[in-house]
Amino acid sequence: MEPVRDITLIVHFLGLAMIIGPFLIHLRAHTGYAFSWVLTGGTVQLVTGLALTGLAEMRLADDPELSLDHTKIAVKTVLTLVIFIVALIAYRRQKKMGPGATQRSLLPLLHVAGALAISNVIIAVLWPGVVS
Ligand code: HEM
Q1: What's the distance, CA 28 to chain centroid?
Q2: Is the residue at 56 inside a domain?
């Protein structure tokens, strides 16, 4: 099971980059936000996060002393769902805008997605737990 966990965790890190990368690159831009990547990243994080949770449950099942922190997983899931919804709304609005139109009104949505993804990194690393 270890290689499966390792590969899933690597994809989890790539999904993280798909959200935080566009956020940092377009932090102050006025147009051309890469919401399709943010949306893909949100989807990847939900799928790989749930898979990692399942794999961790299986790993810890044999040890009655250890268990997952379900509150931590729930908080990460809710934040990721908000990222996904925000990215979906922004992506659909962006598609309706003409190529020449200023997209500045969508920037707060990119900020929300980026800030929540960074919050999830902080939670993953700093919130005590057997796994992140
Ligand atoms: C934007 C969303 C997310 C980000 C940025 C993120 C970030 C991270 C990071 C940085 C780690 C590695 C921490 C470490 O090894 O110390 C991690 C691990 C983990 N994440 Fe996420 N995460 C996200 C969403 C989720 C979701 C939605 C879930 C659950 C449904 C989840 C479940 C897990 C689990 C179980 C691990 C531990 C894997 C292991 O060590 O076996 N994550 N996450």
Answers
A1: 21
A2: yes
> Atom 42, ligand 1: which residue's CA is nearest?
49
* Coil vs helix vs strand at 69: coil
> Which residue's CA lies nearest to atom 31 of ligand 1?
49
Contact 103, 32 (CB under 8 A): yes
**Structural domain tally of the chain?**
1
When pLDDT is averaged across residues 67-87 and rounded to a whole number, the result is 96
Please tell me the chain's helix, strand, coil percentages from 3-state DSSP, rounded to the nearest 5. 75, 0, 25
Residue with CA closest to ligand 1 atom 22:
120
Mutate to test the pocket of ligand 1, among 8, 12, 73, 77 (most ligand atoms within 8 A of CB): 12
Residue of 70, 120, 127 best suited for mutating to test ligand 1, as the one with most atoms within 8 Å of CB: 120
The residue-averaged pLDDT of 71-77 equals: 97
Q: What integer pLDDT is reported at residue 114 of this predicted model?
A: 98
Domain containing 103: what range? 2-126
Residue 132 forms part of a structural domain: no
